[in-house]
Amino acid sequence: MKRDLTHFTVDNYEESLESIIQLKITNQSLYKKCSETPLSLQILELRWRLFGHMLRRDNSIPANLAMLYYLNENSNRGRGRPTTTLPITLNNDLKRLQNKDVQLTTKEDLHKLQKIASQRQEWIAFTARPDDQASGRH
Questions:
Q1: Torsion of CA 95, 99, 102, 105, to 10 degrees
Q2: DSSP structure class, residue 38
Q3: Is residue 4 part of a domain?
Q4: How many domains does the chain have?
Q5: What is the pLDDT of residue 137?
Q6: How many other CB atoms sit within 10 Å of the CB of residue 90?
Q7: DSSP string, 42-87
Q8: How does DSSP classify residue 102?
Q9: Residue 21 lies in a domain
């Protein structure tokens, strides 16, 4: 009797595992089911929050000085593939956030972003992803 019960249990587990293994789920439906967002979007949001903090600080801090040095139009970038730097990543993020009128390629662009960042609510609205704007999240 005990052996039959064990055999029955093992068979049921095997059937359950087969149905679980055969189940295919997309990433989007998994994120929705778990009430999570992709890690890449979380990193995007945190990167822009940190950048906003940096922009609100004094221009004499090392982070702002490095950004000004990088965006200096007279600096020679060299040959070959451009290295992945924070300004390049932020500029690519701006394209992903669909802010086509703002770029991060010159000092003037940096000053424009500093002006936006000085108003926190305007910065939050500026950096909100399109899906956040639709759902009302910030």
A1: -10
A2: -
A3: no
A4: 1
A5: 47
A6: 17
A7: HHHHHHHHHHHHHHHS-TTSHHHHHHHHHT-TT----SSSPP--HH
A8: -
A9: no
